[in-house]
Amino acid sequence: MDAQALHPVLQGLLGSLAAALATGLGALAIFLRRTWGRRSQAITLAGAGGVMLGATVFSLLLPAMAIGAARGGGPVAGALVAAGGMLLGAVAIHLLHQAVPHEHPGRGPEGPRGRGLGLGRHWLFVLAITLHNLPEGLSVGVGYGESAATGLAVMLGIGAQNVPEGLAVAAALADGGASRTRAFVVALLSGLVEPLGALTGALAASSAAGALPWALAFAGGAMFFVVSGEIIPETHREGRERAATFALVGGFVLMLLLDVLLDA
């Protein structure tokens, strides 16, 4: 069956599931080596952040502006829709981070009362990665709501950046004493929250014609918040700024080329 013949909601679910499984693909590397250096983790995560930024710009915000302009009376209207949706997405993810306990290395526990509610720090790190995956799944869902080509581009980009995230989760758990098998399974499960976000995004994008540009921009704002507020600070510590910056640029360029090739 032609994938494009499927309903956009089903396309979004299947696409996000494929991207989520890439988390497990990255986690497989824990069986090759138990301990991974912070520098290698930072570089791979920075590259993933660059891919997310590229997906945000080329597959979410630019289409949101174009659709908003076509339906709302010109480029200014399109820009206002994209800006409004982006701000709403960023605020939503900020509030979610405030409500869910999690932890990023070097920054301490975050969330309710600044404490982990009895969870170990490595499990709090897993929760942090899981929080990243919600907007990623959301972006895949709304991408398929816009078009199959846009959804495929976002899915491939998110899948590419899920690989180093899967390794980061597995490595954190292994460092905390978990067995390699358990670290792999938990890393895989952390990515499976993406279909939930994809379902929400696809339903929002397909619920009404006027909701599509807002949904695209909302997902873009959520992704932008994660990259700027979480990934970049994590990868620009302990003298790794230059290498992480080049990795970020490389990931952005990769998504740019991917977007162009899929539209060709």
In N-to-C order, the SSE pattern is HHHEEHHHHHH
Strands, count: 2
**Rg, Cα atoms, Å:** 18 Å
Straight-line N-to-C gap: 23 Å
- Helix content, binned percent: over 70%
Largest sheet: 2 strands, antiparallel
Average pLDDT figure: 82
List the helices and strands and how they pair.
Layout (H helix, E strand, L loop, with lengths): L7 H20 L10 H35 L2 H25 L2 E3 L3 E3 L10 H26 L1 H28 L4 H12 L2 H14 L3 H25 L5 H23 L1
Antiparallel strand pairs: 1-2
Helix pairs in contact: 1-4, 1-5, 1-6, 1-7, 2-3, 2-4, 2-5, 2-8, 2-9, 3-8, 4-5, 4-6, 4-7, 4-8, 5-6, 5-9, 7-8
Can you put this structure into words, describing what you see?
This protein is mainly α. It is 79% helix and 2% strand. The protein has 9 helices and 2 strands, in the order αααββαααααα. It has helices at 8-27, 38-72, 75-99, 121-146, 148-175, 180-191, 194-207, 211-235, 241-263, and strands at 102-104, 108-110. It has a two-stranded antiparallel sheet. Strand 1 and strand 2 (108-110) form a beta hairpin. Helix 5 (148-175) runs antiparallel to helix 6 (180-191).
Question: Characteristics of this structure?
Answer:
two-stranded antiparallel sheet, mainly alpha, 264 residues, single chain
Task: Give a short synopsis of this structure.
This protein is mainly alpha-helical.
